[in-house]
Design the sequence.
């Protein structure tokens, strides 16, 4: 039975991230989610991208860009593009839903993860770089205009210690680390690909149980080249991936080119990403 008051939510502020969002939506539907799917887009997302997203998501919702412009902090992290991630905060304004799961556009959903809706706000998995912080690529939340206003006020008055959404959300939901273990999602719901470099034995041990893989960091699947004939993925500079990441990269591209199920659309025809 479809659940109409709960939704998976993602975000794309440009066409590149829209490719990621498209894969998020396709995977959710292919794995038979009973929840709604929503993609928030901003004014820079082209009509072509919106049309492709509209064939996959129940709702394509236009939101305002929110940008920290906190260049000093983001440059320190080497990720000046992340200021716009504050736009994510608009997900709290989706009050037509009583509970939602936010997914970054750079995740690959490997199976049905509807059980995430059993969790309460604010649930998230640890960040691999600083495990007392949560990673904001996958989280369970309850839309509320009050919380939305409080978050925007926080952004205006105190900013974010990393210049992006993750720093702000960690300061705002500061009890996460210690208060309630049920709000700690298992790492397999947000398996950062960086774990391959930081803890390879654990990745080998638990990686096969992964439910959501997160291509955290500067290199995203859509930055890579994909040879559809050979079904091979390459990095732009010709180098290859860590061999443990390669299957996920390849799967992302397989999902990307997967035709959208006929029950909700015609054939998928968005142009080849370059
Ligand atoms: N995002 C976006 N446009 C951008 C940067 C980020 O739409 O230019 C959104 C997108 O949903 C993305 C999320 O914000 O997945 C967080 O950014 P990213 O995944 O690049 O950060 P990371 O997970 O690598 O820290
Ligand atoms: Mn991400």
Sequence:
């Amino acid at each position: 039975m479809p659940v109409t008051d709960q939704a998976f939510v993602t975000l794309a502020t440009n066409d590149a991230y829209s490719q990621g969002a498209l894969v998020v939506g396709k995977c959710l539907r292919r794995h038979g989610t009973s929840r709604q799917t929503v993609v928030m887009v901003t004014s820079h997302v082209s009509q072509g991208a919106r049309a492709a997203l509209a064939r996959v998501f129940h709702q394509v919702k236009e939101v305002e860009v929110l940008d920290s412009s906190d260049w000093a902090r983001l440059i320190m992290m080497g990720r000046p593009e992340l200021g716009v991630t504050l736009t994510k905060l608009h997900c709290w304004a989706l009050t037509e839903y009583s509970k939602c799961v936010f997914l970054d556009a750079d995740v690959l959903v490997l199976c049905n993860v509807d059980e995430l809706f059993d969790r309460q706000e604010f649930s998230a998995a640890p960040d691999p770089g600083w495990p007392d912080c949560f990673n904001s690529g996958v989280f369970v939340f309850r839309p509320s205009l009050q919380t939305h206003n409080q978050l925007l006020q926080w952004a205006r008055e105190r900013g974010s210690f990393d210049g992006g959404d993750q720093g702000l959300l960690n300061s705002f939901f500061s009890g996460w680390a210690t208060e309630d273990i049920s709000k700690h999602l298992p790492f397999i719901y947000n398996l950062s690909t960086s774990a391959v470099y930081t803890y390879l034995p654990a990745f080998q041990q638990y990686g096969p149980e992964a439910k959501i893989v997160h291509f955290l960091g500067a290199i995203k699947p859509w930055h890579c080249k994909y040879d559809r004939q050979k079904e091979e993925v390459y990095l732009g500079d010709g180098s290859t991936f860590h061999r443990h990441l390669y299957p996920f990269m390849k799967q992302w591209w397989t999902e990307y080119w997967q035709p959208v199920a006929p029950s909700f659309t015609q054939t998928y025809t968005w142009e080849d990403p370059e």
